[in-house]
Amino acid sequence: MTAQHGHAGIAAAVERMRADGASGPAIAAFERRARQLLEGDDGLLPGDRLEPVAGIPRLDDLDGVDDGDPALRRVAVLKLNGGLGTSMGLHHAKSLVPVKGHRTFLDVIAAQVLGLRRRHDAPGLPLVLMSSFATEAQSARALRPHRGLGAEQFLQSREPKLDAETLEPVHWPAEPALEWCPPGHGDLYAALAGSGTLARLRERGIDWLFASNADNLGAELDPRVLAWAQDDGAPFVMEVVHGTPADRKGGHIARLDGRLVLRETAQVPEGDDSFGDVRRWRFYNTNNLWIDLRALEALVREDPAGPPLPLIVNHKTVDPRDDGSPAVLQLETAMGAAIGAIDGARALHVPRSRFAPVKTTDDLLVVRSDAYTLEGDGHLAPAFDGDPPFVELDPAFYRRLADFDGRFAGGPPSLRRCRSLRVDGDVHFGPGVTVEGNVELTGPGRVPGGVVLAG
């Protein structure tokens, strides 16, 4: 492919976005990523260029805040709600998966926000969802029973998948929807501006945004972080946790030329085995982010594309279910990468209780179990000591939610005293099973109800 053909392909993609009604900021952000690609900036971060991070301030050391602090009337809660749960074999909003009894992620989030309003005398605290074309209507229906919640939604951007050879927008008549993709959750900044949500929040006097993933129910608004960020003059704060084996695929922070940066899996060069070293990198991104909307507003005035985030090139096939379908590139960014793009950005070390993400059924088993208790105000409280249990289930039998549910038909086992549970093969669990210590099981088999597994 010549540079001329590459530019022509990108230009065609931009025209397709315009025809689709994409906003100015969404197009500007895509054009920036395309320039990065054409200029050979692949966003890769070799481990030997990075230094570990030390001396991160701790949430537990911050001063308390009065419940009626007026700053809480100038903050909004935002949840990333665009995912379809395809990693669990789902075709509906992941936030609609039952997580505690019959209560879904969205049910718990609603309870948390309503509880925050009561507890902090902040009746106008907004809940905002960044949804996708596939999740918007489903989520609106699911939230209707929560009276007085008044959640707002805006849509994440979408852009053409690019033919890996020509950089032309790919065509797939068999399923045209697969010709489009989201540009990663770094789209948050352009989507906030392009949807008008940023302007509407600012008009209502909202200065701060607390953003997190909808599948992390540990991410509740903590006024101490807001007070610290304001006092410190930090326009952006990323909450980080000490790494555990469960974080070995997550993004970690590091220093590059003295500046904080975020490194994601897709930014690791081939053959670089440094990424999974949780002892070296220590601090891992929770995607719980605090954003000063005044600073963001100034940034997008200067450049509609928003913060200059590193490029992440995802190599896929146009139909992710068909390895034989045409190869495509998806140009993405990570919203946490703003820690390296916004002057004055800070990291804050938070307890593990604020990071309970559910990316796979392994994670779902932990959160559904008694390792976490769900309180009346939606607070997800850890019931274990130290790190959360580490669960690794054979994906051949447990990856899809329907298969997972069938093997735990009697409910999740007790994991409160479990350190690790590894299952290789097809194992069905009866009701009332307890797992303690480090347990490994090999199938096929069945664990009878009421059994205590200890190791």
Automatic annotation (TrEMBL):
Write out the entry's keywords from A to Z: Nucleotidyltransferase, Transferase
The residues forming a coiled coil are: none
Q: Where is the signal peptide?
A: none
Alphabetized Pfam families for the sequence: UDPGP (PF01704)
Q: Which Gene3D superfamilies match?
A: Hexapeptide repeat proteins, Spore Coat Polysaccharide Biosynthesis Protein SpsA, Chain A
Q: Name one GO biological process term.
A: UDP-alpha-D-glucose metabolic process
UniProt KW Nucleotidyltransferase keyword: yes
Task: Please verify whether the record's keywords include Secreted.
Answer: no
* Binding residue positions for UTP: 94, 156, 184, 215, 359
GO MF assignments: UTP:glucose-1-phosphate uridylyltransferase activity
- Protein residues bound to substrate: 185
Q: Which family does it belong to?
A: Belongs to the UDPGP type 1 family.
Q: What is this protein called?
A: UTP--glucose-1-phosphate uridylyltransferase
